[in-house]
Amino acid sequence: MAGCVAESATDMDRLQHPVERTRPTPFSTSARHAVHVQLGAVGITLETGLRALRRQYQALYNSCFVERPSEDALHVRVRRMPISMTHRRRYEVSANGHTQFTPTHFNSVLPHVEWAVSWELPRALPQFLQLHASVMEVQGAGVIFPGAAGVGKSTLTVGLIARGWRYLCDEFALLHSGSLDLHPYPRAICIKEPSFPVLRELGVPILREFCFSKGSKGAVTLLSPRSLRADAVAGVCPPRFVIFPQYTPGVEPSITPISRGEAAFALHEVCFNLLHCNRLAVDILAEAIRGANCFRLTAGNIHKTCDLLQSVIERGESPCV
């Protein structure tokens, strides 16, 4: 049950301490070549002369178009670079003027557009404390599943959507520094190839047009949450559960209560924007999870794991304080 995006301690450090990889490139929006979407709290403008890329992006986010971008929208630009001696074709992917990636195959461009937004987001929205986590809502309660890539967040997310849970994000928990509520960022769910059999087990079709190569990360598919269920996307909600998942193949799923203090410390470790939030992370976390139930989850079979989580939510079990 693999996740997506930040793949290592190096990647986490890069998100916590964003640096400019190359000199910023100027951004100017051409209405003819721009697509504007609003994904919950996150606005994105994609500018590209690549018609096929605009079609892919429009198909992925066909219910999220807006005529004009929000004031704090992220600006992503993709252009085909001149042919060089070493590469017959390259594409430059930049976000807010910072060049992030130069994939060499068109089939890698859209995942790198999503990735570039992820790199830029921590410094673009300082009103949110941003945690590396998938976030769901069930019965009005926000459920945070924090953790690095590979712990099973994204595949678990798909399984819970199939159970009627609603989706905020599979990569970022956006915790508002003032209200302490969770805000949705319903980006496409990124699933790696090793988890494709689990999708088939859940009855989720893997569409060829949404299968891509993510460079060294291998093959992935991008799933629109609304393609899984029309009402899959949640609104703003309070955090009521914090559950740290770890996928272990073949094990019987189990869940163990932990203290809020242990949970707060662990959440601090997966914070993307410690230096870019407008309040101290420790203060936000302490307030936000004061009334939350906190657990560690050992996840195994997707159906049994979802059954276990559903029973925990329904019982409203309380952790140690």
Overview of this protein structure:
The structure is a single chain. The chain is of the alpha+beta class and about 325 residues long. The chain is built from 9 helices and 16 strands. The strands form 3 sheets. Strands 6, 7, 8, 9, 10, 14, 15 and 16 form an 8-stranded mixed β-sheet that branches. A 5-stranded mixed β-sheet has the order 1-2-3-4-5, with helices on one face. The protein is globular and about 60 Å long. It starts with 8 loop residues before the first helix and ends in a 6-residue tail after the last helix. The N terminus is likely disordered.
Count every helix, treating DSSP H or I runs of 4 or more residues as helices.
9
Report the β-strand fraction as a percent range: 25-35%
Low-confidence stretches: 1-10, 12-29
What general form does the structure show? globular
What's the helical proportion of residues? 25-40%
Mean pLDDT comes to 87
Q: Largest sheet at a glance? A: 8 strands, mixed
Order of helices and strands: HEEHEEEHEEHEEEEHEEHEEHHEH
CATH architecture of the largest domain: 3-Layer(aba) Sandwich
- How far do the termini sit from each other? 30 Å
CATH domain fold name of the largest domain: Rossmann fold
- Chain oligomer state: single chain
Q: Calculate Rg over CA atoms.
A: 19 Å
Per DSSP E runs of 2 or more residues, the count of β-strands stands at: 16
- CATH class category of the largest domain: Alpha Beta
What is the count of distinct domains?
2
Assign the structural class, choosing from mainly alpha, mainly beta, alpha/beta, alpha+beta, or little secondary structure: alpha+beta
